Amino acid sequence: MYAFEYQRPATLADAVAALTRSEDARPLSGGMTLLPTLKQRLAQPSELVDLSGVPDLQGVREEDGALLIGAFTRHADVAAGETVRRRIPALARLAESIGDRQVRNRGTLGGSIANADPAADYPAAVVALNATVRTDRREIAGDDFFTGLFETALEPGELVVGVRFPVPDAAAYAKFRHPASRYALVGVFVARFGAEVRLAVTGAGPSVFRVPEMETALASDFRPEAIAGITVDADGLNGDIHAAPDYRAHLVTVMARRAVAACG
Ligand SMILES: Cc1cc2nc3c(=O)[nH]c(=O)nc-3n(C[C@H](O)[C@H](O)[C@H](O)COP(=O)(O)OP(=O)(O)OC[C@H]3O[C@@H](n4cnc5c(N)ncnc54)[C@H](O)[C@@H]3O)c2cc1C
After folding, report:
1. Cβ(47) to ligand 1 under 6 A?
2. What is the pLDDT of residues 29-56, one digit of tens each?
3. Whose CA is nearest to atom 5 of ligand 1?
């Protein structure tokens, strides 16, 4: 590990000030990804700004019929939160499926989406639920937030403050998980808002993506059978020791059908 300064501000304003003061200061959430990265000397920030002391970044609240979840809200709190379970149960179940108990008790929504791991679960929910990412500077539509492999629309020093999730009429997440890490080999989140259906896939490609052909088919017939014959092209999908691109392509249709079936 390289040497760095450590700060634990108590307010959002102080956190933002600390991040903008130094060019290579980095926010620290649960440290689930950042600390191993530092230990392996893959990053050399001059300052770590620990967000755990900022109450404004924590918790879930209802706002104009949507759920606003603070960036520092831990996966375990999203999974167990009464409001999330009542309003968007699929999101609570997604959080419950992340990693193991230790990871869920440390990892956070903001850290997960800022990290943009191609196999992370939250990106599928952010895109399928048409969520909006709030930062200290602006609002970013979920569709525009994830820009590539471990890449987001965030600018250097920009802080995720929370995510606003509209409440769907029906939603479900189906994941084919890696048996050890529980990351998604392929995960599909489907959400229905009136006549509109949104379906987002994580784990399969370098970044989360939607499948417009499935969305259109489901908008006129919201049953698993409606998408049984729709496949995605394996070209450009991830291939590694865990699953080849064509296997992941096959899993997209299987998981999409399961997600629709789980909507009841
Ligand atoms: C063993 C293991 C298993 C896992 N399994 C899964 C799984 O099944 N599914 C899944 O989705 N994830 C999984 N994860 C990832 C985990 O859930 C965390 O979400 C992820 O590691 C990010 O961790 P963190 O929230 O502690 O953020 P940190 O590690 O603290 O930060 C991650 C990155 O985001 C930046 N950052 C943090 N907060 C903010 C913010 N508010 N604004 C801007 N940038 C920010 C940091 O600077 C850093 O670059 C797993 C992780 C581990 C270690």
Report:
1. no
2. 999 999 999 999 999 999 999 999 999 9
3. 99
